[in-house]
Amino acid sequence: MLNIKLNIKLNDPAAAAIVVGKNGTPEKPEGVPIFAWKGESVEEYWEYTAKALDFGDGKGPNCIVDDGGDATLLIHQGYLFEEKEIAPDPSKGKNREEKAIFTVLLEIYEKDPKYWHKIVDEVYGCSEETTTGVHRLEQMEKKKTLLFPAIDVNNSVTKSKFDNTYGCRHSLPDGIMRATDVMIGGKTVVIAGYGDVGKGCAEAMRGQGARVVVTEIDPICALQAAMDGFEVRKMNSLVKTADIFVTCTGCKKVVTIDHMRQMKDGAIVGNIGHFDHEIDMDGLYQDPDVVRENIKPQYDRFVFKDGHGVHVLAEGRLLNLGCATGHPSFVMSFSFSNQVLAQLMLVEQKGKLEKKVYNLPKHLDEKVARLHLGHLGIELEALTEEQSKYLEIPIEGPFKSENYRY
Amino acid sequence: MLNIKLNIKLNDPAAAAIVVGKNGTPEKPEGVPIFAWKGESVEEYWEYTAKALDFGDGKGPNCIVDDGGDATLLIHQGYLFEEKEIAPDPSKGKNREEKAIFTVLLEIYEKDPKYWHKIVDEVYGCSEETTTGVHRLEQMEKKKTLLFPAIDVNNSVTKSKFDNTYGCRHSLPDGIMRATDVMIGGKTVVIAGYGDVGKGCAEAMRGQGARVVVTEIDPICALQAAMDGFEVRKMNSLVKTADIFVTCTGCKKVVTIDHMRQMKDGAIVGNIGHFDHEIDMDGLYQDPDVVRENIKPQYDRFVFKDGHGVHVLAEGRLLNLGCATGHPSFVMSFSFSNQVLAQLMLVEQKGKLEKKVYNLPKHLDEKVARLHLGHLGIELEALTEEQSKYLEIPIEGPFKSENYRY
Amino acid sequence: MLNIKLNIKLNDPAAAAIVVGKNGTPEKPEGVPIFAWKGESVEEYWEYTAKALDFGDGKGPNCIVDDGGDATLLIHQGYLFEEKEIAPDPSKGKNREEKAIFTVLLEIYEKDPKYWHKIVDEVYGCSEETTTGVHRLEQMEKKKTLLFPAIDVNNSVTKSKFDNTYGCRHSLPDGIMRATDVMIGGKTVVIAGYGDVGKGCAEAMRGQGARVVVTEIDPICALQAAMDGFEVRKMNSLVKTADIFVTCTGCKKVVTIDHMRQMKDGAIVGNIGHFDHEIDMDGLYQDPDVVRENIKPQYDRFVFKDGHGVHVLAEGRLLNLGCATGHPSFVMSFSFSNQVLAQLMLVEQKGKLEKKVYNLPKHLDEKVARLHLGHLGIELEALTEEQSKYLEIPIEGPFKSENYRY
Amino acid sequence: MLNIKLNIKLNDPAAAAIVVGKNGTPEKPEGVPIFAWKGESVEEYWEYTAKALDFGDGKGPNCIVDDGGDATLLIHQGYLFEEKEIAPDPSKGKNREEKAIFTVLLEIYEKDPKYWHKIVDEVYGCSEETTTGVHRLEQMEKKKTLLFPAIDVNNSVTKSKFDNTYGCRHSLPDGIMRATDVMIGGKTVVIAGYGDVGKGCAEAMRGQGARVVVTEIDPICALQAAMDGFEVRKMNSLVKTADIFVTCTGCKKVVTIDHMRQMKDGAIVGNIGHFDHEIDMDGLYQDPDVVRENIKPQYDRFVFKDGHGVHVLAEGRLLNLGCATGHPSFVMSFSFSNQVLAQLMLVEQKGKLEKKVYNLPKHLDEKVARLHLGHLGIELEALTEEQSKYLEIPIEGPFKSENYRY
């Protein structure tokens, strides 16, 4: 049996529905316990994470579905203290977050200094879907501190290309429209970064009749943008004339305060890339000559001394989450299906996997795709025996080599 | 001096801002009086319309900006009763609306049985921007009952092509996304009608990665759709497999209850055409076997006996108004600019126009366009003298013949 | 019975096939006589035109299918000399063409000074498909010199929008590719003029991954280009950086020699608009410092003193005709169907039409469309009785008002 | 010094120009020797390949630029016979081609039974750009028979995505238009296979206003097609209604004779994938009931018993090569730049590489891109020091991980 607990950030009504379950009542829930509430503090967050991993009687999960890698992190840190036989010291935490982690771990350590060892013994492995989470796992693999097998579902085609490209193609115009009610057609839109996210964003803006100009640092992606019919310029060449700026780089200070200083009055600036420092929000907040006027929730006008203002979406955080409702469920279903198949693989391969980071095998990536064909009314052709032999590809796949780029 | 009053349906905060004006206060407004409130009854609507036309001392407007033709209608009906010297009889109204009109007119008639004659004496003319309003004006022109010159701004290119095509290209995905949060990409979307509205809708859906199929009754528009790369089928061929249905026909019962009976569970049905009978809402409401479940405001699930449900946007009314915020201000600015230029023309040509329906002259249509070039950073080329002579077209335009289709 | 003769410019093999006909032989042709050969002189052209109008025994055609208006012109000029009882004097012709016309007419006049009167007596009317031809007809109508009814098929939607827009969308890339073998993707292409032709051209270039920039003199068309996502600039802002220049204006000197002087080495310049003076070819030919190098038939490099060269397609004539094979037959079928329906109308309405220029009625325009639906597999929806009544539109059409723009 | 010889298939005028060189004459060439002529036999082909590898005095090339792997094959086979000290026996060749190879090798073996050993001693390595050639190299690497390092430039992004996707986007419509003059707009086009080639083809057909339907065996690519707005069906569901069929699969019998038997009269069938068996040409040739009618070079009509005919492009070979002029030079420049950089790497890394198949390093792939930016007027943004540190990516690149998919 697989035990399931969730440590997720949800709107409270959604969370409530999950807890109660289909036939349960608030008094007698028959759903899945949830350890989170909207608006919780950092300290609460880590306390709840520990609780979600506590299945009672010193038991924990055997399989971990991680999104960001925090559950995995907590286990590894707890295990390390036990290994060194040192009680965690919250005062030594480098920042508020680390202090919170140490506090939680200290409490556990004082009760049972071998608690995490017992948990780890039972873990088959984890699967992880974010770039950041996978990066941490790879670092641990390198340092040989990884305690159980891990599956990287972030690298699946049905994750990276679907979530990033098709998800943002939907949620970028959604976010801009809900926040600003400004016509996109006819406007000049700068898409900073022509990776998976940028490609989806550029397509969406063109689909609304905008003129799209791309900025890039990578000459290959820059050429792709040009071959797709987009002008490719430096940000400095664009700041004075463009109407809407969208960052999708994963980098920082892509739109600086100096850029914004030169923009047209009413220019719209938003981020759909990664963290909230693609736009230099700190620069805006700290400049005493810049006045912030809130237009409505998640939509602010920052007015410069000369009177012109730029309109920033979602305080520089992900505009599709802040100003709309994020990606549609259909595209999230791809990511979650990857997680489910990864989890099944952990169970099936129990004991056979090393303490390494694995990619989800291509046939499972293809299976995720296969599971979604019906919803879109897709008819799939099948190889004949003759064709299969000719191509040296099995009829049921996988159909492409590992380094195929799609 | 032009006297200005507004009889418009606005969100109340917007209305309040207009009334108060830039330097005024609620106590001492310096803005424009408004005679309307959100949620008013039909009776109030006509009462306020009459008030908006009453400038005091038996005076009324000299120029009328109409949107739907109701102000013009009220004046003409009032004038007719006076002409016949018959007091309006509310009990003879054919429906609630006509009863309301007669009630308002009776009250005025009893006070001053030549009230509307005096008003009409001062009117230079009206301008009208809706198909319905223009239709009424043309009927009156035919019957020679039109009391003053009228300008049809609905037929301007910068109205019909901009409002309809570009406006809906923006507000269709906006409405669907806000209401449903459903992914449009990969879905099969039926666009019923490939007129100006349908063209914008089809482009928007394709721009989101949907597969678009068009239905048409007009063979020319059907061919245009095919030549633009869209499949063109009958509705009956599509009802079982498509995911989203959008009506843009101006016709009635384009999506019937029988169609909806055959649709997939979860099919989305919305109207962005004209009135709320493009989708057979009455059929849904009246069928005792169909159960309505409200998902959220402006978004309902109608469940059929076999358990499948269709999701209807905005109760079959215009989904961009019901589920989003209508067209963006930029595209409305074209329509309103047409109105303003028509009004100036009424003043300039005072006394020279007949009691007819005029199109806005092409040079004014072009002027509306010209006024919006700067906002989009457009550089316009100018004819040289030599070119102007060669083409027999004045350097400043107009550039096209009256029947040019753009 | 309708007598048919052709006065057309055809490749000789095609002409031969028409003359011989399906069951004939060169010795015993059973096809249609042709009065033209490829490469004929201006003098021969007019001689043959007269012959094509001569059915023997003083008889001529009853219905004229004209493309450019030359048959109609010859009849009208001949008629005028007879009316004035003056023999045409070739030496008074203003140019080579007029001298040729007068020569032909003189020969006829000397044989029979009432020849054209007899011809005109039998003519039901003509139909004309070019802008130039229609312009001439309208001038004659104005001056009341038009001798028979004329139908303008140039103004049909299925002519103007199909031939111009969809035809050029096909034949522009066809011409560029065949002539130059240059990659269009990634290039900056200037489309001069965003009328029906320019719209098709811009779409085709974007469809090949080019970045399209538009030039316009008409603010409405300029805005349409911007709302379709294209940058709109003056030619002067573009000459130094763009790769390909395509004129589609109907105007002259749209690309001047000064423009070409500033272009990049290898810039491609072509015309798909109207006559061969949209590009200033005379300027190129007459400048002693410009050296012409023929690359291959219909493709020349003009080298300027500084060593840079521009590559001109088809000597500035229509590049789709010069460098490819013109429009595909499917789109020409629309134009020719309009001609056929116009001819049938002339016969059916014989005696009922005035000496005026008529548009082809909308129901015939729609019929042309209807005849082409099957070829593209289009299913057309039909109005129900209820819908027909509601819209006040007959079930069989016509479906739109005369000024509808499509 | 690098010795250069070419063994290439070229149009003879192009070959002549290369041989003569810039300042040479046919009598005193100063160009590069060429060992090939258009229309040579298989026997001549291998004889010339051997000659191209013979630099005189028992010397051969130090670096090999291969396209298909034949030069590399000849060297390896010759070496193997010498190693086994067995004279090649042409009569033992399995087919005409192998017999030709053995004949060439025998002649050399008889002159010098250590000829290829001396050649191999001097070879730094080879670079190879085709899928087939790379496949062979990988087989040799596996069996440890590879005699020198090899660089796979087929896997570069700037090769695989540019040549395949953008090249075919250009040359598919080029081939169809030149061969058929048929209008693509409004037609239903089946694109069999949505890999790199299929993606470019689908975009090109849509860009011409066609309705594109995709067939796929790979569920991931099938979903990509759907998310890009294309219908995805089985070939059997399409054969009766589609107008144009294009194979881009790399597989065989994708369009079978049974498919063609069911097609509409005039259906167009072409291949832009790999070899000439994607369309079952053998089936057509061998069926006694199918009559072949040549329309023009590289364009045939195959008529079935019931009278309907299908129009096959380029006898089922690559239609862009057969019916047009292949890819434009700009896109080929990417492939050739990869070859050049690979060759420079072979020289620079001389002695340091193992007898393995290497990918071209990502920084060289990016360099190929960088070299082409100027031609398209692309401005590239550069990372700041701060950004470089944050991303842990060097300012000069490479910018992406090895498994990034672009």
Automatic annotation (TrEMBL), chains A, B, C, D:
Gene Ontology BP terms: one-carbon metabolic process; S-adenosylmethionine cycle
UniProt organism field: Anaeramoeba ignava (Anaerobic marine amoeba)
Family note: Belongs to the adenosylhomocysteinase family.
GO molecular function annotation: adenosylhomocysteinase activity
Cofactor(s) of this protein: NAD(+)
Top-level taxonomic group: Eukaryota
Name of the protein in question: adenosylhomocysteinase
Pathway: Amino-acid biosynthesis; L-homocysteine biosynthesis; L-homocysteine from S-adenosyl-L-homocysteine: step 1/1
Annotated Gene3D superfamilies: Adenosylhomocysteinase-like (3.40.50.1480), NAD(P)-binding Rossmann-like Domain (3.40.50.720)
Chain residues that bind NAD(+): 130-132, 195-200, 216, 272-274, 320, 327
The keyword Hydrolase is annotated on this UniProt entry: yes
Pfam families: AdoHcyase (PF05221), AdoHcyase_NAD (PF00670)
Cofactor note: Binds 1 NAD(+) per subunit.
GO CC aspect terms: cytosol
Residue ranges constituting the S-adenosyl-L-homocysteine hydrolase NAD binding domain according to the UniProt record: 164-326
EC number: 3.13.2.1
Keyword Ribonucleoprotein appears in the UniProt entry: no
Keyword terms: Hydrolase, NAD, One-carbon metabolism
